[in-house]
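quick one before i forget lol
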Amino acid sequence: MFFQRYAGWLIFLGAFYGLWALLVFGQGLWPLVTEHWPMALSMAIGSYAAGSTPMGGGTVGFPVLVLLFDMPASLGRDFSFAVQSIGMVSASIFIFCRRQPLAWAMLRGALIGSLLATPLGILFFAPLVSELWVKLSFAVIWGGFGILHLYRLSEITGHDHLGDPRCPADFRVGLVFGAVAGFSAVSVTGVGIDMVIYAALVLLSRVDLKVAIPTSVVIMAFSSLVGVAVKSISGDWQPGVLGNWLAAAPVVALGAPLGVFVVGLIGRRPTLLVVALLCVVQFVWACYTEWATLGMSGMAMALLAVLACLGGFEVLRMLGIRRVRNRAQGAELAAGEGTVAAAS
Protein backbone atom coordinates (compact mmCIF):
# COMPACT_ATOMS: atom_id res chain seq x y z
CA MET A 1 0.00 0.00 0.00
CA PHE A 2 2.82 2.43 0.87
CA PHE A 3 4.65 1.85 -2.41
CA GLN A 4 1.45 2.19 -4.39
CA ARG A 5 0.40 5.42 -2.68
CA TYR A 6 3.83 7.06 -2.80
CA ALA A 7 4.94 5.68 -6.18
CA GLY A 8 5.30 9.16 -7.73
CA TRP A 9 7.48 10.39 -4.89
CA LEU A 10 9.65 7.26 -4.86
CA ILE A 11 10.17 7.54 -8.63
CA PHE A 12 11.26 11.16 -8.19
CA LEU A 13 13.72 10.19 -5.46
CA GLY A 14 15.13 7.32 -7.50
CA ALA A 15 15.61 9.54 -10.56
CA PHE A 16 17.20 12.34 -8.54
CA TYR A 17 19.65 10.20 -6.55
CA GLY A 18 20.60 8.30 -9.70
CA LEU A 19 21.38 11.50 -11.61
CA TRP A 20 23.15 13.01 -8.59
CA ALA A 21 25.39 9.94 -8.22
CA LEU A 22 26.10 9.92 -11.96
CA LEU A 23 27.11 13.57 -11.84
CA VAL A 24 29.18 13.39 -8.65
CA PHE A 25 31.04 10.15 -9.26
CA GLY A 26 31.04 10.26 -13.04
CA GLN A 27 32.58 13.73 -13.10
CA GLY A 28 34.84 13.25 -10.07
CA LEU A 29 33.03 15.89 -7.98
CA TRP A 30 33.03 14.05 -4.65
CA PRO A 31 35.82 16.30 -3.22
CA LEU A 32 33.60 19.30 -4.03
CA VAL A 33 30.74 17.69 -2.10
CA THR A 34 32.87 17.01 0.98
CA GLU A 35 34.29 20.53 0.84
CA HIS A 36 30.79 21.95 1.35
CA TRP A 37 29.63 19.56 4.09
CA PRO A 38 28.65 22.46 6.46
CA MET A 39 25.90 23.43 4.01
CA ALA A 40 24.57 19.86 3.98
CA LEU A 41 24.43 19.95 7.78
CA SER A 42 22.66 23.33 7.80
CA MET A 43 20.10 22.23 5.24
CA ALA A 44 19.23 19.18 7.32
CA ILE A 45 17.49 21.72 9.56
CA GLY A 46 16.44 23.99 6.72
CA SER A 47 14.75 21.22 4.78
CA TYR A 48 12.69 20.18 7.79
CA ALA A 49 11.51 23.78 8.14
CA ALA A 50 10.75 23.86 4.42
CA GLY A 51 8.33 20.96 4.68
CA SER A 52 6.73 21.81 8.01
CA THR A 53 6.40 25.61 7.89
CA PRO A 54 5.56 28.31 5.31
CA MET A 55 9.28 29.00 4.91
CA GLY A 56 11.35 27.62 2.05
CA GLY A 57 14.65 25.87 2.56
CA GLY A 58 16.33 29.03 1.35
CA THR A 59 15.11 30.69 4.54
CA VAL A 60 17.91 28.79 6.29
CA GLY A 61 20.30 28.47 3.35
CA PHE A 62 20.32 32.21 2.61
CA PRO A 63 21.37 33.42 6.09
CA VAL A 64 23.85 30.57 6.50
CA LEU A 65 25.65 31.51 3.28
CA VAL A 66 25.29 35.27 3.60
CA LEU A 67 25.37 36.00 7.33
CA LEU A 68 27.41 33.09 8.67
CA PHE A 69 29.81 32.38 5.79
CA ASP A 70 29.87 36.00 4.53
CA MET A 71 29.07 35.04 0.94
CA PRO A 72 27.42 37.43 -1.56
CA ALA A 73 23.67 37.81 -1.14
CA SER A 74 23.20 36.97 -4.82
CA LEU A 75 24.80 33.58 -4.14
CA GLY A 76 22.32 33.00 -1.33
CA ARG A 77 19.45 33.79 -3.69
CA ASP A 78 20.68 31.49 -6.47
CA PHE A 79 21.37 28.71 -3.98
CA SER A 80 17.83 29.09 -2.67
CA PHE A 81 16.44 28.54 -6.17
CA ALA A 82 18.66 25.50 -6.75
CA VAL A 83 18.16 23.72 -3.44
CA GLN A 84 14.41 24.39 -3.25
CA SER A 85 13.97 22.99 -6.76
CA ILE A 86 14.83 19.64 -5.15
CA GLY A 87 13.64 19.88 -1.55
CA MET A 88 10.40 21.79 -2.07
CA VAL A 89 9.54 19.82 -5.20
CA SER A 90 10.12 16.57 -3.31
CA ALA A 91 7.90 17.83 -0.48
CA SER A 92 5.21 18.91 -2.98
CA ILE A 93 5.12 15.51 -4.66
CA PHE A 94 4.91 13.93 -1.20
CA ILE A 95 1.99 16.24 -0.36
CA PHE A 96 0.17 15.28 -3.57
CA CYS A 97 0.72 11.59 -2.85
CA ARG A 98 -0.75 12.05 0.63
CA ARG A 99 -3.72 13.84 -0.96
CA GLN A 100 -3.47 16.70 1.51
CA PRO A 101 -6.05 19.47 0.98
CA LEU A 102 -4.80 22.65 -0.69
CA ALA A 103 -6.28 26.12 -1.11
CA TRP A 104 -6.71 25.64 -4.84
CA ALA A 105 -8.39 28.95 -5.68
CA MET A 106 -5.56 31.08 -4.28
CA LEU A 107 -2.91 28.60 -5.40
CA ARG A 108 -4.05 28.72 -9.04
CA GLY A 109 -3.90 32.51 -9.03
CA ALA A 110 -0.48 32.54 -7.35
CA LEU A 111 0.93 30.04 -9.86
CA ILE A 112 -0.10 32.25 -12.77
CA GLY A 113 1.15 35.41 -11.05
CA SER A 114 4.52 33.87 -10.23
CA LEU A 115 4.96 32.42 -13.71
CA LEU A 116 4.44 35.85 -15.28
CA ALA A 117 6.25 38.08 -12.77
CA THR A 118 9.17 36.07 -11.36
CA PRO A 119 11.13 35.95 -14.66
CA LEU A 120 10.62 39.70 -15.13
CA GLY A 121 11.86 40.34 -11.61
CA ILE A 122 14.96 38.17 -12.06
CA LEU A 123 15.88 39.75 -15.39
CA PHE A 124 15.02 43.40 -14.80
CA PHE A 125 14.52 44.15 -11.08
CA ALA A 126 17.02 42.01 -9.16
CA PRO A 127 20.10 43.38 -11.05
CA LEU A 128 19.18 46.87 -9.80
CA VAL A 129 19.19 45.84 -6.12
CA SER A 130 22.54 46.05 -4.32
CA GLU A 131 23.98 43.17 -2.29
CA LEU A 132 23.30 45.07 0.94
CA TRP A 133 19.65 45.63 0.12
CA VAL A 134 19.20 42.00 -0.91
CA LYS A 135 20.48 40.99 2.53
CA LEU A 136 18.33 43.56 4.34
CA SER A 137 15.23 42.72 2.29
CA PHE A 138 15.51 39.12 3.37
CA ALA A 139 16.12 40.09 7.00
CA VAL A 140 13.17 42.50 7.10
CA ILE A 141 10.64 40.20 5.39
CA TRP A 142 11.37 37.21 7.59
CA GLY A 143 11.93 39.31 10.71
CA GLY A 144 8.42 40.75 10.38
CA PHE A 145 7.05 37.30 9.66
CA GLY A 146 8.67 35.92 12.80
CA ILE A 147 7.32 38.71 15.00
CA LEU A 148 3.83 38.16 13.58
CA HIS A 149 3.88 34.55 14.77
CA LEU A 150 5.19 35.43 18.19
CA TYR A 151 2.11 37.50 19.03
CA ARG A 152 -0.54 35.96 16.73
CA LEU A 153 0.38 32.28 16.95
CA SER A 154 -2.63 31.22 19.05
CA GLU A 155 -5.04 32.91 16.65
CA ILE A 156 -3.31 31.54 13.53
CA THR A 157 -3.29 27.98 14.85
CA GLY A 158 -6.98 28.20 15.80
CA HIS A 159 -8.45 28.46 12.28
CA ASP A 160 -10.45 25.49 10.98
CA HIS A 161 -11.70 26.81 7.62
CA LEU A 162 -10.58 24.59 4.73
CA GLY A 163 -11.08 27.23 2.05
CA ASP A 164 -13.32 27.40 -1.00
CA PRO A 165 -11.60 25.84 -4.04
CA ARG A 166 -13.78 27.92 -6.40
CA CYS A 167 -13.62 31.29 -4.62
CA PRO A 168 -13.03 34.00 -7.29
CA ALA A 169 -11.87 36.50 -4.64
CA ASP A 170 -9.15 34.12 -3.43
CA PHE A 171 -8.06 33.52 -7.03
CA ARG A 172 -7.66 37.26 -7.59
CA VAL A 173 -5.76 37.69 -4.32
CA GLY A 174 -3.45 34.83 -5.28
CA LEU A 175 -2.88 36.31 -8.74
CA VAL A 176 -1.96 39.77 -7.43
CA PHE A 177 0.05 38.62 -4.41
CA GLY A 178 1.82 35.94 -6.45
CA ALA A 179 2.84 38.48 -9.08
CA VAL A 180 4.00 41.10 -6.57
CA ALA A 181 5.92 38.60 -4.44
CA GLY A 182 7.42 36.88 -7.48
CA PHE A 183 8.64 40.16 -8.95
CA SER A 184 9.88 41.85 -5.77
CA ALA A 185 10.74 39.13 -3.21
CA VAL A 186 11.49 35.87 -5.02
CA SER A 187 13.60 37.51 -7.71
CA VAL A 188 15.74 39.27 -5.09
CA THR A 189 16.02 36.77 -2.22
CA GLY A 190 14.95 33.44 -3.72
CA VAL A 191 12.12 33.08 -1.19
CA GLY A 192 9.09 35.05 -0.02
CA ILE A 193 6.13 34.05 -2.14
CA ASP A 194 5.41 31.15 0.21
CA MET A 195 5.20 33.54 3.17
CA VAL A 196 3.02 36.03 1.26
CA ILE A 197 0.49 33.42 0.11
CA TYR A 198 0.49 31.79 3.53
CA ALA A 199 -0.15 35.17 5.19
CA ALA A 200 -3.05 35.83 2.80
CA LEU A 201 -4.52 32.41 3.58
CA VAL A 202 -4.30 32.54 7.38
CA LEU A 203 -4.95 36.25 7.88
CA LEU A 204 -7.33 37.15 5.05
CA SER A 205 -9.05 33.86 4.24
CA ARG A 206 -8.67 32.46 7.82
CA VAL A 207 -7.65 29.05 6.47
CA ASP A 208 -6.53 26.12 8.61
CA LEU A 209 -2.75 25.64 8.84
CA LYS A 210 -3.05 22.08 7.54
CA VAL A 211 -4.22 23.64 4.26
CA ALA A 212 -2.23 26.89 4.26
CA ILE A 213 1.23 25.40 4.87
CA PRO A 214 1.10 22.69 2.16
CA THR A 215 -0.20 25.34 -0.24
CA SER A 216 2.77 27.58 0.57
CA VAL A 217 5.14 24.65 -0.03
CA VAL A 218 3.70 24.02 -3.50
CA ILE A 219 3.88 27.66 -4.62
CA MET A 220 7.48 27.98 -3.43
CA ALA A 221 8.43 24.79 -5.25
CA PHE A 222 6.89 26.11 -8.47
CA SER A 223 8.55 29.53 -8.13
CA SER A 224 11.92 27.88 -7.48
CA LEU A 225 11.58 25.87 -10.69
CA VAL A 226 10.76 29.09 -12.54
CA GLY A 227 13.85 30.70 -11.03
CA VAL A 228 16.06 27.75 -12.01
CA ALA A 229 14.71 27.84 -15.57
CA VAL A 230 15.33 31.58 -15.96
CA LYS A 231 18.80 31.36 -14.43
CA SER A 232 19.74 28.41 -16.62
CA ILE A 233 18.46 29.96 -19.84
CA SER A 234 20.19 33.27 -19.12
CA GLY A 235 23.37 31.54 -17.88
CA ASP A 236 23.50 33.86 -14.88
CA TRP A 237 24.31 31.46 -12.02
CA GLN A 238 26.58 32.79 -9.27
CA PRO A 239 29.89 30.95 -8.75
CA GLY A 240 29.74 28.59 -5.78
CA VAL A 241 26.15 27.43 -6.26
CA LEU A 242 27.12 24.04 -7.70
CA GLY A 243 29.27 22.90 -4.79
CA ASN A 244 26.76 23.92 -2.16
CA TRP A 245 23.92 22.39 -4.15
CA LEU A 246 25.71 19.07 -4.64
CA ALA A 247 26.28 18.83 -0.89
CA ALA A 248 22.80 19.92 0.20
CA ALA A 249 20.48 18.46 -2.45
CA PRO A 250 20.65 14.81 -1.26
CA VAL A 251 19.75 15.99 2.23
CA VAL A 252 16.80 18.20 1.31
CA ALA A 253 15.29 15.63 -1.04
CA LEU A 254 14.40 13.59 2.05
CA GLY A 255 14.44 16.31 4.72
CA ALA A 256 11.58 18.42 3.34
CA PRO A 257 9.12 15.50 2.98
CA LEU A 258 10.21 14.35 6.44
CA GLY A 259 9.10 17.75 7.76
CA VAL A 260 5.70 17.26 6.11
CA PHE A 261 5.34 13.87 7.80
CA VAL A 262 6.74 14.62 11.28
CA VAL A 263 4.79 17.84 11.79
CA GLY A 264 1.60 15.82 11.36
CA LEU A 265 2.62 13.86 14.45
CA ILE A 266 3.90 16.62 16.76
CA GLY A 267 1.75 19.53 15.56
CA ARG A 268 2.78 22.76 13.87
CA ARG A 269 2.74 25.12 16.85
CA PRO A 270 6.14 24.13 18.38
CA THR A 271 7.87 24.19 14.99
CA LEU A 272 6.37 27.55 14.04
CA LEU A 273 7.40 29.04 17.37
CA VAL A 274 11.03 27.91 17.02
CA VAL A 275 11.28 29.09 13.40
CA ALA A 276 9.67 32.43 14.31
CA LEU A 277 12.36 32.98 16.94
CA LEU A 278 15.05 32.12 14.38
CA CYS A 279 13.56 34.67 11.97
CA VAL A 280 13.80 37.40 14.59
CA VAL A 281 17.35 36.36 15.52
CA GLN A 282 18.52 36.53 11.90
CA PHE A 283 17.09 40.05 11.59
CA VAL A 284 18.98 41.18 14.69
CA TRP A 285 22.14 39.47 13.45
CA ALA A 286 21.88 41.08 10.00
CA CYS A 287 21.49 44.53 11.54
CA TYR A 288 24.44 43.86 13.86
CA THR A 289 26.77 42.73 11.08
CA GLU A 290 25.83 45.70 8.88
CA TRP A 291 25.86 48.31 11.65
CA ALA A 292 28.95 50.07 10.28
CA THR A 293 27.30 50.44 6.88
CA LEU A 294 23.77 51.23 8.05
CA GLY A 295 24.42 53.62 10.92
CA MET A 296 21.54 54.99 12.95
CA SER A 297 19.56 56.18 9.94
CA GLY A 298 19.83 52.84 8.15
CA MET A 299 18.91 50.97 11.31
CA ALA A 300 15.85 53.18 11.73
CA MET A 301 14.80 52.46 8.14
CA ALA A 302 15.16 48.71 8.71
CA LEU A 303 13.00 48.87 11.83
CA LEU A 304 10.41 50.98 10.02
CA ALA A 305 10.36 48.43 7.21
CA VAL A 306 9.62 45.66 9.74
CA LEU A 307 6.81 47.78 11.21
CA ALA A 308 5.47 48.33 7.69
CA CYS A 309 5.41 44.54 7.15
CA LEU A 310 3.56 44.08 10.43
CA GLY A 311 1.13 46.83 9.44
CA GLY A 312 0.43 45.03 6.18
CA PHE A 313 -0.19 41.79 8.06
CA GLU A 314 -2.61 43.55 10.41
CA VAL A 315 -4.52 45.06 7.48
CA LEU A 316 -4.93 41.56 6.02
CA ARG A 317 -6.09 40.32 9.42
CA MET A 318 -8.76 43.02 9.76
CA LEU A 319 -10.01 42.36 6.23
CA GLY A 320 -10.10 38.65 7.09
CA ILE A 321 -12.20 39.29 10.20
CA ARG A 322 -14.60 41.30 8.06
CA ARG A 323 -14.81 38.47 5.53
CA VAL A 324 -15.63 35.97 8.28
CA ARG A 325 -18.34 38.28 9.63
CA ASN A 326 -19.86 38.73 6.18
CA ARG A 327 -19.71 34.99 5.56
CA ALA A 328 -21.50 34.31 8.84
CA GLN A 329 -24.17 36.92 8.09
CA GLY A 330 -24.71 35.43 4.64
CA ALA A 331 -25.12 31.96 6.15
CA GLU A 332 -27.64 33.28 8.69
CA LEU A 333 -29.58 35.07 5.96
CA ALA A 334 -29.68 31.95 3.82
CA ALA A 335 -30.82 29.87 6.79
CA GLY A 336 -33.57 32.40 7.57
CA GLU A 337 -34.83 32.38 3.99
CA GLY A 338 -34.85 28.61 4.05
CA THR A 339 -36.92 28.59 7.23
CA VAL A 340 -39.44 31.04 5.78
CA ALA A 341 -39.73 29.00 2.57
CA ALA A 342 -40.29 25.80 4.56
CA ALA A 343 -43.00 27.48 6.69
CA SER A 344 -44.86 28.76 3.69
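fyi Residues 162 and 330 are 18 Å apart (CA to CA).
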